Amino acid sequence: MFDRMTAQEEDPKVLFWLLHARERGGSFVSRFAQACLAADAENYPLLRSALMVLMQKYSQYSPSPTFLELHAREAADRESLAAGERSTIGRFTHSVRTWLRKMVG
């Protein structure tokens, strides 16, 4: 299943961890996250098993439950977008931007 995947095709929780660890992690974690993000479909599966272990060990880079809830809303909003409910996307985008500003500081 994961043999031809890249980090950008990963579960959003994993991609969030990689992006957050790359920016905020120590030198090893940051460099490992960067390597995962740069890996192509041939090499990413080689890194993925170590990534799963590091995600558990360094869980401080994982997304918060609030982020996951917002992400689930975004997915639902994308589905409703086809039905013409664009205003919901605008509210969600504003919520995410507000949340990110709080996270970044």
User: What count of helical segments does DSSP give?
Assistant: 5
Low-confidence segments, ≥5 residues, pLDDT <50? none
User: What letter string, H or E per element, gives the SSE order?
Assistant: HHHHH
The SS-based structural class is mainly alpha
Calculate the mean pLDDT score and round it.
Answer: 83
Distance between the termini: 38 Å
Which percent band covers the strand fraction? under 5%
What is the count of structural domains? 2
Biggest sheet record? none
Described by the principal axes of the CA atoms, the overall outline is globular
Our Rg estimate from Cα atoms comes to: 15 Å
Structure description:
By secondary structure, this protein is mostly helical. It has two domains: 7-61, no CATH class; 65-104. It has helices spanning 12-24, 27-38, 44-57, 65-81, 86-104. Helix 1 packs across helix 2, helix 2 (27-38) packs antiparallel against helix 3 (44-57) and helix 4 runs antiparallel to helix 5. The radius of gyration is 15 Å and the shape is globular. The model has no long low-confidence stretch (mean pLDDT 83).
